[in-house]
Write a structure and sequence with these properties.
There is one protein chain. By secondary structure, the protein is of the alpha+beta class. β2 and β3 form a beta hairpin. About 30% of the residues lie in helices and about 25% in strands. It starts with a strand and ends in a 16-residue tail after the last helix. It has a five-stranded mixed sheet, with helices on both faces.
Length: about 150
């Protein structure tokens, strides 16, 4: 299977939103997606996305990320979503997306690549460990919704 990875463009926003919704559904959180094409378009300078495509140019996965800064370590990439359509799992698409981000982090002098994984997602946890990531620490996630 021939998979290519590329940076998304503004014209890819509808595809990105579609996969965001697909990923949220997979996680059982479809009702949490509030973002729109208009939001993603208006805020396009605040995030980045890699798209994985098959030989026909159809999207099969994505990595949605942005740059952040941590007081203890400095510049980092925060990976908000890494998703591969079910049909394309087991073809190293996730590894290709992760490696593209790791390479980008090195090229842009980042000190780390960070993300979250749900504790029930054993396949993802195993995947991240195989990449060499540390999974789990003593931090708890906090969330405050602005209304």
């Amino acid at each position: 299977m021939n998979i290519s990875i590329r940076k998304s463009t503004e014209k890819d926003i509808p595809v990105i939103l579609s996969m965001i919704k697909e990923f949220a559904t997979y996680l059982g959180k479809a009702d949490k997606v509030k973002i729109s094409i208009e939001d993603l378009t208006k805020e396009k300078d605040r995030y980045h996305c890699y798209l994985a495509e098959n030989e026909k140019g159809d999207p099969v996965g994505y990595a949605f990320y942005f740059y952040t800064y941590h007081t203890w370590t400095g510049k980092a990439i925060y990976l908000d979503d890494l998703y591969v359509k079910e049909k394309y799992r087991r073809f190293s698409v996730g590894t290709m997306l992760a490696c593209a981000l790791i390479d980008l982090a090195r090229q842009t002098n980042c000190k780390s690549l960070r993300w979250q994984v749900l504790d029930w997602n054993k396949e993802a946890i195993s995947f991240y460990k195989k990449l060499g990531a540390t999974v789990g620490d003593d931090n708890l996630n906090c969330y405050y919704e602005i209304k």
